[in-house]
Each structure stands twice: as C-alpha cells, then as structure tokens.
UniProtKB/TrEMBL annotation:
<dbReference type="InterPro" id="IPR036282">
    <property type="entry name" value="Glutathione-S-Trfase_C_sf"/>
</dbReference>
<dbReference type="InterPro" id="IPR004045">
    <property type="entry name" value="Glutathione_S-Trfase_N"/>
</dbReference>
<dbReference type="GO" id="GO:0005737">
    <property type="term" value="C:cytoplasm"/>
</dbReference>
<dbReference type="GO" id="GO:0004364">
    <property type="term" value="F:glutathione transferase activity"/>
</dbReference>
<dbReference type="InterPro" id="IPR016639">
    <property type="entry name" value="GST_Omega/GSH"/>
</dbReference>
<feature type="domain" description="GST C-terminal">
    <location>
        <begin position="210"/>
        <end position="379"/>
    </location>
</feature>
<dbReference type="InterPro" id="IPR047047">
    <property type="entry name" value="GST_Omega-like_C"/>
</dbReference>
<dbReference type="Pfam" id="PF13409">
    <property type="entry name" value="GST_N_2"/>
</dbReference>
<dbReference type="Pfam" id="PF13410">
    <property type="entry name" value="GST_C_2"/>
</dbReference>
<dbReference type="InterPro" id="IPR036249">
    <property type="entry name" value="Thioredoxin-like_sf"/>
</dbReference>
<dbReference type="InterPro" id="IPR010987">
    <property type="entry name" value="Glutathione-S-Trfase_C-like"/>
</dbReference>
<dbReference type="InterPro" id="IPR040079">
    <property type="entry name" value="Glutathione_S-Trfase"/>
</dbReference>
<protein>
    <recommendedName>
        <fullName>GST C-terminal domain-containing protein</fullName>
    </recommendedName>
</protein>
Amino acid sequence: MHCISLPSSHLLLHSPPKTTLKLASHVSPRMFFNDSATNNNSGSTNGFSLIKNVSQLLWGASLPPGILISTVRTAWTSTWQIMMSQLAPSDPSGAYTRPPSKFRLNPTAATTKLHLYVGLPCPWAHRTLIVRALKGLEEAVPVSVAGHGLDGSWEFKDVPDKDNDILVPTMDRVNRCRNLKEVYRLRKGGYDGRATVPMLWDVEKKEVVCNESYDIIEFFNSGLNELAQHPGLDLSPLELKEEIEEWNRVIYPNVNNGVYRCGFAQSQEAYDVAVSGLFSTLARIDDHLGSSRYLCGDRLTLADICLFTTLIRFDLVYNVLFKCTKKKLLEYTNLHAYMRDVYQIPKVAATCNFLEIMDGYYRMLFPLNPGSIRPVMPSVCEHEFLCRPSEREAMSSVGKRVRHVLTCNVEP
C-alpha cells in the first residue's frame, strides 16, 4: 500500500484589527488585543487606565450589568468564529479540516541545488529538520529559519545564536526576502495562497519544489544519498514500509492532526470526538512501546520522527492551549521515556527551540489566547530533564549502532 498523504501546512494567524468599544457618547477607549502583550507604550497603558476608570465610575466594585456581558460575549463569539474560519477551516459539525498541501514533490524535477524554509514552532517543519540532520544533509540543503512576525506571518530576522547549540530564526539566506510570502511569490506565475512551512525551494529555477512535509522527509531519507554524510542510515527500509504506513494511518489523524482537531474544534461535539481519539491512541501507543523500543521494533523510522515532533510539544503547548488536558505526556511512562530516547539521539535536541515553539503558539494564535501571555515552561520540558536516561537502549542493540553512526553526543 502507498503511504498516505500527510498535509503539512502550519499557518500563523494574522492578528485582528484593533476595535473600538463605545461605552458612552463621548467615551471611546481602544481595546488593545495583541498589542497589549507586545507593545509597552504609553498609549496601551493609557487605554487600559481609561477603561478601568470608566468601569469604576459606572459600576463601582460591582460586575458590569448582565446586558453588557451578554452583548460583549455575543460579539466576541461571532468575531471568534470569523477568525477561526480563516485559521482553521471546519466541516458542518465544527470539526477542523486541514487544507491539503499545494505543492507535491516530483522527484524527477528536483535538482541538487535546494534550499529548505522552515519555522521552528511548526511540527511539520520540525520533521524535515530532524531527517536533514540525521542524514547529514546540512551542507547539501541549506536552511532559512523564519520566525513569527507581529502580524502572524512567517518573517525572517537575524537572531544572534548565543550558545550555538540550537536552531534560531535567520535571515532569508538565498532570496533575501523579508517574509515567506515574498519567497512564494518569486516562483514563475507568482502565488497568493497560504505561505506555509516546510517548503523546499529550487534555487536555480526559483520554484517551489514541495511544501508537503512527508514528501520532503522521504526525499531526504533516500533521494539525496549521494550528498548525505550518512547515506547508510535508512529511516524507511523496504521491509518496514508497510508497518510504517500502518502507524502513519493511526498516528496522523489521531495524534499529529488530532491535537489540532482538539484545539481548533468549533463545537463541543467535534472536540469530544477529537479528544477521545487522541487519548485512546496515545494509550494504545504507550502500551505498544512497553515491549518495543521504537514503533517498528528496534529501528528508528520516519514514523517515529512524525510522532516525536507532536510528543515534544505536548506538555509544552497542546496540553494547555489545545485543551488536550485528560493526561499529560509525563503520565505515560513508556511514551515519555520514548520521547526522551529520541530527543537524546545526537543532533535532534539542536532542532528543538522550546521558547520559539511556545511563542509561535501562545503569542500568535490569537483566537486561542487573546492575551498573548506565554506561560512559564514546564520543568519537565527543559533540556536537563529531557536528557535524563530513558533506559530504553537495553531494549535493542540497533539504537547503539545508530548513535555510533552519527557524530556528536548529548550530555546527560
């Protein structure tokens, strides 16, 4: 059977325009939404103070009258539905339906002069960074790392890499564009669709090669072996392809996209269905990993990479922001140890920038977090905790050989 198509687009939402709420005929304080978290200017402070003073004058220490609460709630609900329809298209039941990738890979058209565009918060882009690192394709396929702009778009900025041990946002290193949308528009015929990551770019033809994550990681795994530093590492061996596909059919809809179906659900019914599928699948995988080091036995595969990029974000983001609250990943003994095991593979930790991940979700997904407040990082998501021994190496001998093939070690 052929591998299923895994949509890979990850969209950051454009912040809504500032709105004005008229409380009286001569009073028009401005309601600062995203700007209240990003701009520490006097206008924001004065606007908040004015609202506070007016509310105290009208109602004193009491709550606002019920009619005002009902009116504001109705207005906010309507606005939320409009924004969510753009951020997360849904079906009639309110269930999130991810848009398909626009550009699929044609391996015969791919050149050897390629450039990868990614965003660090995005789990789909994260897959490509991990496979690129494990195969040793850093020199063969240079990368530009887009950061989250204040308007919600993917934009390029030069962030100093103080420690030189994790990826950070960069300038556009090949096209010198200000944001990812400009890069997409450089292709022949232009492009006005969603500018999503990951995106593989043909430098010579100035063309989008692919923006489907699974196509890209399969291509990195086997299509560039003549340029890879570790051509012998095969993350999708022929004898395991069917098993990998079976796991993808389970993990993609229920876990990878399942967390988004929880967070972007626009009805209680849609949320209940999504959260049930998510946690029943996590329980099934946790049980399986009790007797198997990786999903397909004692060999790391693309299925593990796809699962890992969701797991590493689970307690950090999805458990809170996406309402995946039934259990924390830490409560799954096998799953959490498995995640740490993958994290400790040389070069993987360097692809995980936790602050960028948190900012990309908490500060930019406005409908889910209007205050744009980023919570404190859970201690169990810090590098030191994730480097605690997973004690899973004893389950196979292959894992030791994988670490021997790769070059650097993660400090315990």
